[in-house]
């Protein structure tokens, strides 16, 4: 039949379409149906007519609706008539020695899709390789493609898994395997228990699972940090326990002592062997000594004391400095309690303290003295020289710092500059004076 004749017959069919009262729409249709109709007048458009569309019943379908090309099947053939049009039928058949598994006819529907699922051709009296079961192994040879009717396959579970259900399947004459019920469950390990002063990770206690443990603050884990459930249903590893973190007692520094306190700043007695995590050690020195290093140390999570070790060093006030025109007469030491004595050079006087002492605060109790040079008494012809206390200088050759001498000319003589009657001594330097005329 050529294409022109087929088109003519289809036109005649469409023109004479009569509604089929037995083609009703089912309630449990598992696809989207087109518009429901009773006659062609219910359909809009010239191309839509009222046709029986399988489970959808009478529906408005385009008369030129087509489905995609049907794919061929392995070890079989498919014949489609009329070619891929609405209501066309695809008929499947298998080669000799093979049996069709699935529907032998599929119909092109009004939605442009083929109904049902494409079948397959399976060898007669043969079964395919046995189905895969999680964590189970069949006793068949690997790579075998087909099995004979009556062949039995035994499944065994992998190491670490226990079987549940029937473990044998058989090849049936329809080329299918009997339904299996075997299930491989992981072996269970007993509850490992809780850990004192710590926590465990919540999880399943089955093969290949792990349970992790951690300790509370101030405690250290001893044993395995995690336990693993092995194929025998036993835990691998050493069950841990949490012990308090401890630090050893510190030695008292020379000329000092260590005082211990807990987190609440309460005093801890010294008759202990060790201290706990978070305890503090405070270093105190004797009078005249000072801390070098960390005054306070804390017992850390690594069982060591924080900071650096402390020692008590004697307080040192340092060299007080050079005294011009003077010297230190005592041994030169600058540590706590030492007393330094000073002496001024000849023809000089002192101002301040001639002895200073190093205090526990690291400072001298006084500044070093000042040694101030005396001045030479001026010699003035035809004049008398008096000190600031109206004393005749006479045979005295020097006068002290911050003092002065008065120049008084004899009768018949006068100073060149009447305003320069005094001569002041400033650390060995005299003021300007005038001679008598």
From TrEMBL:
One of its GO terms (cellular component) is membrane. The keyword Ribosomal protein does not apply. Disulfide bonds join 94-121, 157-184, 215-242, 285-312, 344-371. It holds the Pfam family Sushi. SMART domains: CCP. Residues 1-21 form the signal peptide. Keywords: Disulfide bond, Glycoprotein, Membrane, Repeat, Signal, Sushi. It comes from the Eukaryota. It is found in: Membrane. SUPFAM superfamilies: Complement control module/SCR domain. Residues 65-123, 125-186, 187-244, 245-314, 315-373 form the Sushi domain. Its main location: membrane. This is DgyrCDS2012. It comes from Dimorphilus gyrociliatus.
């Amino acid at each position: 039949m050529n294409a022109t004749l087929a088109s003519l017959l289809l036109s005649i069919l469409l023109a004479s379409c009569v509604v089929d009262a037995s083609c009703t729409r089912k309630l449990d249709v598992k696809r989207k149906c087109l518009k429901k109709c009773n006659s062609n007048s219910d359909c809009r458009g010239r191309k839509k007519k009222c046709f029986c569309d399988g489970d959808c019943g009478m529906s408005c379908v385009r008369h030129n609706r087509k489905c995609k090309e049907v794919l061929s099947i392995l070890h079989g053939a498919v014949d489609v008539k009329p070619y891929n049009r609405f209501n066309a039928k695809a008929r499947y058949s298998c080669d000799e020695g093979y049996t069709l598994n699935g529907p032998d006819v599929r119909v092109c529907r009004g939605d442009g899709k083929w109904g049902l699922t494409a079948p397959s051709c399976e060898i007669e009296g043969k079964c395919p390789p046995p189905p895969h079961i999680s964590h189970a192994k069949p006793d068949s040879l690997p790579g075998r493609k087909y099995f004979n009717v009556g062949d039995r396959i035994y499944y065994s579970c992998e190491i670490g898994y226990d079987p549940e259900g029937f473990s044998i399947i058989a090849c049936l004459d329809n080329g299918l395997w009997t339904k299996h019920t075997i299930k491989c469950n992981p072996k269970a390990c007993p509850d490992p228990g809780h850990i004192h002063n710590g926590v465990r990770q919540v999880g399943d206690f089955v093969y290949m699972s792990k349970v992790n443990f951690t300790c509370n603050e101030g405690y250290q884990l001893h044993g395995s940090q995690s336990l693993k459930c092995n194929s025998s249903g036993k835990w691998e590893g050493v069950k841990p326990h949490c012990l308090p973190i401890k630090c050893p007692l510190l030695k008292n520094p020379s000329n000092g002592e260590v005082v211990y306190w807990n987190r609440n700043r309460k005093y801890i007695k010294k008759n202990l062997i060790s201290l706990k995590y978070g305890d503090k050690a405070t270093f105190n020195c004797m009078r005249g000594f000072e801390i070098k290093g960390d005054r306070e140390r804390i017992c850390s999570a690594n069982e060591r004391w924080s900071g650096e070790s402390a020692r008590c060093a004697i307080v040192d006030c340092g060299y007080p400095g050079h005294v011009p025109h003077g010297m230190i007469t005592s041994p030169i030491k600058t540590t706590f309690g030492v007393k330094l004595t000073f002496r001024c050079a000849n023809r000089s006087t002192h101002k301040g303290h001639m002895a200073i002492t190093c205090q526990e605060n690291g400072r001298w109790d006084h500044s070093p003295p000042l040694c101030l040079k005396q001045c030479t008494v001026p010699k003035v012809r035809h004049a008398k020289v008096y000190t600031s206390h109206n004393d005749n200088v006479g045979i005295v050759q020097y006068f002290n710092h911050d003092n002065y001498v008065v120049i008084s000319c004899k009768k018949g003589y006068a100073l060149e500059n009447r305003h320069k009657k005094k001569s002041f001594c400033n650390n060995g330097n005299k003021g300007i004076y005038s001679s008598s005329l």
